[in-house]
Amino acid sequence: MTDSIMSKAATMEIPINSNGDTGTLAEDDSLEQAAKLQWSLDEKVGSSTGARDLQQVMVSGPNLNETSIVSGGYGGTAEGIISTATIKGPGIHYNAEFNKRIPVTGLGPNMHHSSSSSSMAAEQTTRGVAVEKIETVKKWGLNTYKCTKQMISERFGRGSRTVDLELEAQIEVLRDTKRKYETVLRLARALTNHFYNMVQTQHSLGDTFAELSQKSPELRDEFGYNAETQKLLCKNGETLLGAINFFVSSINTLVNKTMEDTLMTIKMYENARLEFDAYRSDLEELSMGPRDAVAMARIDAAQQQYQVHKEKYERLRSDVIIKLKFLEENKVKVMHKQLLLFHNAISAYFAGNQQQLEQTLKQFNIKLKPPGADKPSWLEDQ
Asked: Computed from CA positions of residues 204, 209, 211, 212, in that sequence, does the dihedral angle turn out positive or negative?
């Protein structure tokens, strides 16, 4: 109420008489009474409420968003309001509530354009990878379906298959040979294991005889002879073990590496043969159908696939033939050497010919482990 009175007083017109004197108005008395009333209120409040009044004025005072300009004239009061919230500068934002300047950190049009371009490029790359994976899965599924269909047809005698009688006979001989060589390898390992245990027993027996020779004076010579004999047998046995270990290692390499590698190539060849027959059968079925534009397009695509798998089949077939030839030559060479070593070593050992046994190992460049060594390394791997 006080604010309204003061505002009215500030904007009130002052009448002037014709002779230049100011007239007496009834409103002067009311203004004087209002001033006296405001003075009495200020006296009652006192200094104790000064801080609170200041805080209330700061809180409930005029909004900084607006600047009120009041002017008086003959036409009465007039107010003009200017909003400061609309005042902005380059890179500056005026917060109307807190009257602070906040820098604008938005992106320019060029940066927005580059960001959108990079996101579009990443999206296209992801989409391309997804499409490629889908196409790969689709091709794999179609190829698996055709091969499964061909396999079932061959098994039930309804489909035809490409047959190379000579090559398949060689493959069957190789598989049979591998089975027999695996048996030889298994028995040779068993022989080595048993013979190793026998050599260790002879070594322990020789040590026991030597100890008893020292503790039994009346049987010293007899225990001494037997101790020497067991030590000699143990030494010859270790030499024979070196020869047998070399034999086992060579057979293991031949069976589990050379033959296995050839059989892996044969497996790839058989898969290629199945795919070739599957696409060949598909092409034959399409060729027996109608000859419209759609069918001709499918026939051309099937012809291309048939040609691709035919080349793959012929290439793997050639690889199998070459590997079988080299495997046979390598097998003959390796087995000739190993069988000769095995025969000479066994014969020399059981004949008691130590010199011939050592000569056999030198002939095949076999180096023995030092005496007292542990089990052969190939047994440790088992």
From this structure: positive
- What distance in Å separates the CA atoms of residue 142 and residue 138, rounded to the nearest whole number? 6
Token pair for residue 197? 């245990």
Q: What is the pLDDT of residues 113-134, one digit of tens each?
A: 566 777 777 787 888 788 888 8
Listed residue (202, 326, 187) closest to 251, CA to CA = 187
Read off the pTM. 0.59
The residue among 362 and 102 whose pLDDT is bigger is 362
Residue 73's contacts (CB-CB under 8 Å, 6 or more residues apart) are: 13
Helices 260-287, 109-155: crossing angle, 10 deg rounding: 90
- The DSSP annotation for 318-370 comes to HHHHHHHHHHHHHHHHHHHHHHHHHHHHHHHHHTT-HHHHHHHHHHTT-PPPP
Residue 54 to residue 60: CA distance in whole angstroms: 10
* Number of CB atoms found within 10 A of residue 105's CB: 6
Closest to 368 (Cα-Cα) out of 200, 250, 194, 240: 240
Helix (H, G, I), strand (E, B), or coil: what is residue 19? coil
Instruction: Write out pLDDT tens, residues 356-374.
Output: 998 988 888 888 766 545 5
Closest CA to 259 of 146, 184, 147, 182: 182
Residues 6+ apart with CB under 8 A from 2: 34, 38
Contact 70, 79 (CB under 8 A): yes
Helices (H), the chain: 2-11, 26-45, 50-60, 109-155, 165-215, 220-253, 260-287, 293-350, 354-363, 377-380
Rg (CA), the chain: 55
Asked if 324 and 318 touch (Cβ cutoff 8 Å), the reply is no
Under DSSP, the state recorded for 92 is E
Q: Quick one: pLDDT at residue 240?
A: 93
Cα–Cα distance between 112 and 243 in angstroms, integer? Answer: 79
What residues form DSSP beta bridges with 83? 66
Q: Which tokens go with 8? A: 């009215």
Tokens 């047809």 appear where?
A: 153
Distance, in Å, from the CA atom of 289 to the CA atom of 298, rounded to the nearest integer, reads 11
Residues 82 and 66: beta-carbon distance below 8 Å: yes
Characterize the bridge pairing of strands 66-71 and 78-83: antiparallel
State CA 329 to chain mean position distance.
Answer: 43
